[in-house]
Amino acid sequence: MQKRENVVPSFTPLIKQFAAFVFVSSISAVCSLIVRYVANLVMPYEVAVGLAQVAGVIIAFTLNRRFVFSGEQVLTYARIWRFTLVNVVSLAIAVTVSSLAFRIVLPNLGVSFHPDVLAQLVGLAACALPSFLGHKYFSFRAAGVR
């Protein structure tokens, strides 16, 4: 009797990589929250969220390159450009969702316990999966893979 091969691909490595991405992103998010809190003392909420997102991106790039997408470590301008492009999309998602949650959704739900932090967390969560997929298949893809 012939042993039948599993025709369904294993998602275990992808799930482990996504878990590592979420962990690294959590570190980045905490840093982002701190930056947004401090920046929000002197600037409007949306600008503070944008600034915090930039700080988070710098931390995320460094940690993701080292711990999550570590296959090819050659630092190229193309890789930095692709990472930046994915994060511009992520920034748009985070600021839009955070602002909608902070200005409209949470007030209408009567949330008064740190709505600024909750809104920012919702914005960060909204861009987690799109960011992971963008970085996996675009920012950190192996050289020569199209």
UniProtKB/TrEMBL annotation:
Pfam families: GtrA_DPMS_TM. The keyword Transmembrane applies. The keyword Amino-acid biosynthesis does not apply. GO terms for cellular component: membrane. Residues 21-140 form the GtrA/DPMS transmembrane domain. The chain crosses the membrane at residues 20-39, 45-63, 84-105, 117-138. Keywords: Membrane, Transmembrane, Transmembrane helix. Its main location: membrane. One of its GO terms (biological process) is polysaccharide biosynthetic process. It is found in: Membrane. It is a multi-pass membrane protein. InterPro entries: GtrA_DPMS_TM. This is GtrA/DPMS transmembrane domain-containing protein. It comes from Dyella japonica A8.
